Each structure stands twice: as C-alpha cells, then as structure tokens.
Known about the structure:
Strand order of the largest sheet of chain A: 5-8-4-1-2-3-9
Structural class of chain B: alpha/beta
Bound molecules: flavin-adenine dinucleotide, adenosine monophosphate
Family (chain A): Belongs to the ETF alpha-subunit/FixB family.
Distance between the termini of chain A: 48 Å
InterPro entries (chain A): DHS-like_NAD/FAD-binding_dom, ETF_a/b_N, ETF_a/FixB, ETF_asu_C, Rossmann-like_a/b/a_fold
Keywords (chain A): Electron transport, FAD, Flavoprotein, Transport
Order of helices and strands of chain B: EEEEEHEHEHEHEEEEHEEEH
CATH superfamily of the largest domain in chain A: HUPs
Number of domains of chain A: 2
CATH superfamily of chain B: HUPs
CATH class of the largest domain in chain A: Alpha Beta
Oligomer: heterodimer
CATH topology of chain B: Rossmann fold
Strand content of chain A: 15-25%
GO molecular function (chain A): electron transfer activity; flavin adenine dinucleotide binding
Protein name (chain A): Electron transfer flavoprotein subunit alpha/FixB family protein
Number of helices of chain A: 8
Shape of chain A: elongated
CATH architecture of chain B: 3-Layer(aba) Sandwich
Number of strands of chain B: 15
Amino acid sequence: MPVLIYAENADGKFKKSIFEAVSYAKAIADQNNTSLTAISIGDVAVDELSALGKYGADKVLNVSNDRLKTFVNQAYASVIAEAAKKEGTDIVVLSNSFSGRGLAPRVAVKLNAGIIDGAVSLPDQSGGKFIVKKTAFSGKAFAFTELTSANKVISLTPNTYKVVETGGTAAIEDFAAEVKEGDFKVMLKEIVRSTDKVSLPDAEIVVSGGRGLKGPENWGMIEELADLLGAATACSKPVSDAGWRPHSEHVGQTGIAVSPNLYIAIGISGAIQHLAGISASKVIVVINKDPEAPFYKVADYGIVGDAFEVVPKLIEAIKQHKAIA
Amino acid sequence: MKILVCISNVPDTTTKITFTDNNTQFNANGVQFIVNPYDEIALARAIELTEGNGSVTVINVGVASTEPTIRKALAIGATDAVRVNVKPHDAWFVAYQIAHYVKQNPFDLILTGRESIDYNGSKVAAMLGELLDIPSVSIIKKLDVNGDSATVEREIEGGKEVLSIPFPFVAGTAEGVAEPKIPNMRGIMSARTKPLTVVEPVAVDVNSNIISYETPAARGQVKLLPAEDAGKLIELLHTEARVI
Lengths: 325, 244
Ligand SMILES: Cc1cc2nc3c(=O)[nH]c(=O)nc-3n(C[C@H](O)[C@H](O)[C@H](O)COP(=O)(O)OP(=O)(O)OC[C@H]3O[C@@H](n4cnc5c(N)ncnc54)[C@H](O)[C@@H]3O)c2cc1C
Ligand SMILES: Nc1ncnc2c1ncn2[C@@H]1O[C@H](COP(=O)(O)O)[C@@H](O)[C@H]1O
C-alpha cells in the first residue's frame, strides 16, 4: 500500500515546503517498506512533475482536468480521496499550508481516516502504534497524538522536516479523476498577490517589528534588513491592530505561527501570546532597548539597544558580509 | 438569515501551559477559560450580518463547566445557544456532533474560528463542510453577504483569493472579518434569560488520542552583545548559528 503525497503547486511550481513533505512521506514509505506516489492537480509542466522523483516519489499521478485548474478544496479533496482508493493507500500526506488546512480534514472524512494536523515529527510506529508529534496550544506545547484508524492523514508543518534528495526518477501517469458538479459551488473571482517578496509562512528568515518602532513610517529599515536577508517581514499584534502593517503579518497565538530558521524580533517585548507563535523558530535574535524585556528569556542572541541605532548598523554589517562572501 | 457560530471554550491566552500526571493531562488548575478569540470574531460578524433580520445560534460541544463561556457569547449578542453535553475528544468528534445537530436544524451559514487555540488546529470547519456535503473555506479574512451568496476573502501564501459562495456553507474566520464585541450591561442582563438548550451527544468512532504532551525545550542562555557590535552578531549568525 503506497503512501500518497499531495504535491500542491503554486502557479505551476512546487515550493520548498512540498519537497519537505515529499521527503517526509518518502521516509514514512520507507518505514513501511512501501513505495511513494505523489498526486499533482492543475497545470504543472512535466519537468517539474518528474523533479518530485528527486525527493523520493516513485510515481506521480498528474491530474490536468480543465475544471481543476484552480484550487477548490471540495473538488480537490474528492480527487485525492479517489486516488487514495485507487492506489490502495492508507496514509495520505499533505503540507499544512493555507490550502492544505481546507483540504486535509475533508480528505480525512472521505477516507474515514484519523488526522494529524501540523505534524513536526515522523510517526513512531514501534509496538504497532502510530504516534506523531504535533503542535498544540498554538505553539505553546506539543502533543504526541496516536491515530487508531486504518487510514491516516497527516499534514506536515513547513520548515520542520529537512529536504532529502534521494536522486530517483518518478514515472508520470495521467490520472483521469471524476468530477462532480456539486464540488464546484465555490467560484474563484480573483487572486490578489501581495507585494511581499517572501511569503511569511514559507520564510526561512523572518524580520519582525513591534510597537517599539513607534510608527509605520519607520518600517523602511525593517524592509531593507529583510530584503538583504531574503527574509519575510512580520509584526506583533498591536502593530497590525493599529494598521501599521497588514493583519497577514501578525504572528503569535492569535496570528500565524511560524517556524523559520532565524527570527529577528525588533522592538517587541515578548508577551506570552507573541512567543506562542514563534517558539518553534530555530534561532531567535532580539533587539530591544530594555534589558529586562521578557523576550530575552527565550532568545539565542540579543543586542540591548535602540532599534534606530542598531538596525542601520546591522544593515551595514550585512552589506559588508555580502561583499566578502 | 440563520447563522450558527461554533464556539470553543479555551484557556485564556495569557495561560502558561503546563501538564500533570506525567505530562498526560492538561493542568487546568487556576486556568481562566474564555471564548476562543477567533470564535469571538465569527460571533461579532454573525451579529452584524443578522441585525434586524435573522438570528445567531451559538453551539458548544462541552460539559456543564463551559456554560460561563456560552453565557458570554449570549451577552455579546447571540440569540440562543446549544450545548452538546460531552467532553470534546478531538476535532472529528466535535465536527460530528455539530453536523448531527445541523442536519436536524439547518442554517444558512455556519461560522467557526480559524482554529481553536488549544488542542486542535483548523480542522472543524472543513470537516463540517464534508459531513454536511456543503462548501467550506477554512481561513477567511472578509465576509460580505449579497443575496443568496457571499463574497469571502481567503488567505493564501503571498496574497488572497476572492471567492463567491452560495449558501449554505461553512467558514472559519480570522482577523479582519470583524472586530470582537464587548458585552454591554443590557447584554449581560439578558444573557441570563436567553434560551440555552442542552442536547445529548451521538455515538461516534474515535480515531485519535493524545498520548502525552511536551513543552518546547528551554533555550540556552542568551548571548548578549553591546549595541556597537552589530557586525559581530552577523558573524555569529553566519559561523556559529549557521542561519545566514
Ligand atoms: C487575547 C489576546 C491575544 C493576543 N494575541 C497576540 C498575538 O497573537 N501576537 C502578539 O504579538 N500579541 C498578542 N497579544 C498582545 C500581547 O499581549 C502584547 O500586548 C503584544 O505582543 C505586545 O506587542 P509589542 O511587543 O509590539 O509592544 P509592547 O509590549 O509595547 O513592547 C514594545 C517593546 O519595544 C521596546 N522598545 C521601545 N522602544 C524601542 C527602541 N527605540 N528600540 C528598541 N526597543 C524598543 C520596549 O522596551 C518594549 O519591550 C494578544 C493579547 C490578547 C489579550
Ligand atoms: N468543543 C467545541 N465546541 C464547539 N465548537 C468548537 C469546539 N471545538 C472547536 N470548535 C470550533 O471549531 C473551530 C476550529 O477548531 P479546530 O478545528 O479544533 O482548531 C473553533 O474556532 C470553533 O469555532
């Protein structure tokens, strides 16, 4: 029974989070001595599809039905469930992206499967069990969750599993999915792209600003720093509440949870609700003029000082670093 | 328009999360429980959309101790409330109970929060959609009604989608949909007398169990650098932490 991975594309391309999910699914397939089948829905070029073989997919089911060119969770869930049944799959893996959240639970219900959302570890299958570590309490804790159903759905948190290149090749098969009219009630009217160069949930580096920056007019240096690092920008809740930055940048317990390699917090106090959303970051840097700021308790590196002096110095230092490297 | 708002009863956001019994039980000792913050947003929008024309029912799957949270929702402005009298086991269990209720008591629109800030994670909305065989959108930033359909904005990586969806459907609300409402005195007084119906759960096969919990590993001591030494920080991030 092969493992099935849903390879979500963004404008015909696969992002790093999908290669992570394919690598993760491959490791689960290895645990179970089985093969890995990927399914792609929409308009993706053959080269891009066969690249999934590099990360361990033995076969790629390509669904290029005209009606399925743009994402509709209800219809995509039907297609993935149909593929799972045809392949005889009992484990389906997805990435816990915005679309994945609308999709994975529907797939699980269709397959009578238990579901783990936001997985951060491979399943522990010792003793015939199936236990996966996942985030809980909006990042304040982890829960080891056991699935007891025959079928299982897992959605993987981006940036928590390393991409592994196995160097294989994938056979591409067309998969003619049946489409039901009732699955297309949602109509896409428009896609609005934000001007951010790096999207926050995918970012490996995040530069985040808080109320200590005083006002939206001071975000120029935050953006410059982010640009130099190839980072996404983020903010604390009061900053987005005040309209200095868009809500989509608000991280924390009631915003989005991120797990980048590097999180740089500038002028943010480190309230418990903020820390909830960023505690999965691998390295945390704090810049705050108050040495007593709670954020320092969870930081790896810190500069105690005025952001308006420190950030321009950091920008200079990175420029120099880049010039040498 | 008849709207159902699903509310979950969660630890206050300032709660330091700890566990007991060898990390197998959440330690609710001294914890203040609140309406899940995203559900407050859903409730606020539901009240705005039904002003003078419709009703807002709130539903909670939970034991009697969740009633203060339900009364809070009534004080904010819900018309009536339903409590499914059982401890919520997981998202699937909750969605199944709510779907069962909705099959007997149909609604035009079902709102949830984008996620409950405790155990679960953005699952109930899509599960409800699937169980009821109606559309679902898991994370929305905006919701406007035009006749027999709604226009919603869905968050995606690097932007948003604008969607048109006919009723009935399920949507999980996030910030931007509405500002949470604070109950006023009249609301608090009337909440006591608004109808709160308790219904018994239906049997459902459970397929997941939490075995134990863990809190994030403590980090080592922070390395503090003087303000002049920004260059040194970049060097350390490169050579020691290896993140740039
Ligand atoms: C229900 C609820 C949910 C919440 N959810 C979230 C959430 O998801 N995310 C979130 O972020 N917050 C959340 N909060 C808010 C949270 O409690 C804090 O109020 C918030 O995180 C504080 O934001 P801040 O650190 O930017 O501002 P402040 O607390 O005002 O801190 C500003 C910091 O900047 C420093 N500073 C000032 N000037 C300078 C300077 N020139 N240079 C360097 N440093 C400077 C100060 O020393 C201070 O530490 C929530 C609150 C509630 C009640
Ligand atoms: N016990 C519950 N009773 C009623 N609604 C719930 C319950 N648990 C979760 N929900 C709803 O489902 C949403 C998403 O929860 P979840 O999928 O568990 O993250 C919440 O914001 C609530 O609207």
